[in-house]
């Protein structure tokens, strides 16, 4: 293990990075709360401010991927498609197989200037997660309980509200509804068989309602759908904890652009189009499994320095007083102060670990296999 790799594995450094993210996030959330007074006065100004505040928080996670772990992202697409990145409102369809798939998506958003304005159709439970859910709330993220009877009004109103969004946005959809596991896949393919749909090998059966509703509500705003299929070299199974430990991964993303004019307006035909798309995504994954790469030309985009500069700003602002305080505590010789500070460190480490735990596949919930949940959906 080299010196740099050893430093990255040190718990104290990881804890300091977590401290910067958590405290800066709380500060950003407080500022976002204060900006709510702007909403009835100037909605677009509120949005532009919150886009940049959100960027300041999310880019710290992108910094971990790009600068701390050195993970590389290669695009399999054509230059004409890349030239449109960050210049139009789009819907992103991404396979949901890995703990850091969202982070790879955010990396692409950052490199093309739409990280702060990126959107997602998120499960309602995430609204309660500090930093993540709170920041998304101020960003007008659409939350759903995945029970259409309860979600209908919320989803329609939330999506319609985004029609006049002033910044170019990438709206991410995980059409599979939950992360891929073997158990979920078996159940999903039983559903596919019962509905007479072709079986998929590398994906779960897509849930079409969210996709068709999103296109219906954002028609005239969204210009294209980007189909993104993600995989990792050498059959790596990346985790956020691995990123925090400085482990380097190599991500490959196959990206295809479909103008909305090519997608049927009729709900059933649109759903059929999505099923066909997932059959094509499955074929792409099959090709990757055999060849170790996706078909087509490759483009490597460069990481930008802004994520690193943003983190260094927050680290300088927050770590200097923390280090000074820690020094004063230990030189004071007071057992109570020292014990109190150690308890603070333990609580902070547990908090950071719990935030990481939100991304772990084994902890993600799903209605697959739950008979009552299926009836409600």
Automatic annotation (TrEMBL):
Recorded GO MF terms: 1-acylglycerol-3-phosphate O-acyltransferase activity
* Family matches, as InterPro entries: Acyltransf_C, Plipid/glycerol_acylTrfase
Extract the Pfam families matched here: Acyltransf_C, Acyltransferase
SMART domains linked to this entry: PlsC
Could you name the Gene Ontology cellular component terms for this entry?
Answer: endoplasmic reticulum
Q: Which GO terms fall under biological process for this protein?
A: phospholipid biosynthetic process
Taking every annotated instance into account, which residue ranges of this chain make up the domain Phospholipid/glycerol acyltransferase?
90-212
Q: Which domain of life is it from?
A: Eukaryota
- Entry keywords, A to Z: Acyltransferase, Lipid biosynthesis, Lipid metabolism, Membrane, Phospholipid biosynthesis, Phospholipid metabolism, Transferase, Transmembrane, Transmembrane helix
Is Transmembrane helix one of the keywords?
yes
- Please give the start and end residues of each transmembrane region: 12-39, 308-327, 333-352
The family assignment reads: Belongs to the 1-acyl-sn-glycerol-3-phosphate acyltransferase family.
Record protein name field: 1-acyl-sn-glycerol-3-phosphate acyltransferase gamma-like
């Amino acid at each position: 293990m080299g010196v740099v790799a050893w430093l990255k594995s040190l718990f104290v450094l990881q804890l300091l990075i977590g401290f910067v993210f958590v405290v800066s996030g709380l500060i950003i959330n407080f500022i976002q709360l204060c900006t709510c007074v702007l909403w009835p006065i100037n909605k677009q100004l509120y949005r532009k401010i919150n886009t940049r505040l959100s960027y300041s928080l999310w880019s710290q996670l992108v910094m971990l991927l790009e600068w701390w772990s050195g993970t590389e992202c290669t695009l399999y697409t054509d230059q004409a498609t890349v030239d449109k990145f960050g210049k139009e409102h789009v819907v992103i369809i991404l396979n949901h197989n890995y703990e850091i798939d969202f982070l790879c998506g955010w990396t692409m958003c950052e490199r093309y200037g739409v990280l702060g304005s990126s959107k997602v159709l998120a499960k309602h439970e995430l609204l309660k997660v500090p930093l993540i859910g709170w920041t998304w709330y101020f960003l007008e993220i659409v939350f759903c309980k995945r029970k259409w009877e309860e979600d209908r009004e919320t989803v329609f109103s939330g999506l319609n509200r985004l029609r006049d969004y002033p910044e170019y946005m990438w709206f991410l959809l995980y059409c599979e509804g939950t992360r891929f596991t073997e158990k979920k896949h078996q159940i999903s393919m039983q559903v596919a068989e019962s509905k007479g749909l072709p079986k998929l090998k590398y994906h779960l059966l897509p849930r079409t309602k969210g996709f068709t509703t999103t296109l219906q509500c954002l028609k005239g705003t969204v210009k294209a759908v980007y189909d993104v299929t993600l995989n990792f070299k050498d059959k790596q199974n990346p985790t956020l904890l691995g990123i925090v430990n400085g482990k380097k991964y190599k991500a490959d993303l196959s990206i295809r652009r479909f103008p909305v004019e090519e997608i049927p307006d009729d709900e059933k035909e649109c759903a059929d189009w999505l099923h066909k798309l997932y059959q094509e995504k499955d074929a792409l994954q099959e090709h990757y499994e055999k060849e170790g790469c996706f078909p087509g030309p490759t483009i490597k985009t460069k990481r930008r320095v802004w994520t690193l500069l943003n983190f260094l700003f927050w680290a300088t602002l927050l770590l200097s007083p923390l280090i000074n305080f820690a020094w004063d505590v230990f030189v004071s010789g007071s057992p109570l102060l020292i014990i109190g500070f150690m308890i603070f460190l333990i609580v902070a480490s547990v908090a950071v670990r719990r935030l990481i735990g939100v991304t772990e596949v084994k902890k993600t919930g799903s209605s697959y296999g739950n008979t009552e949940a299926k009836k409600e959906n």
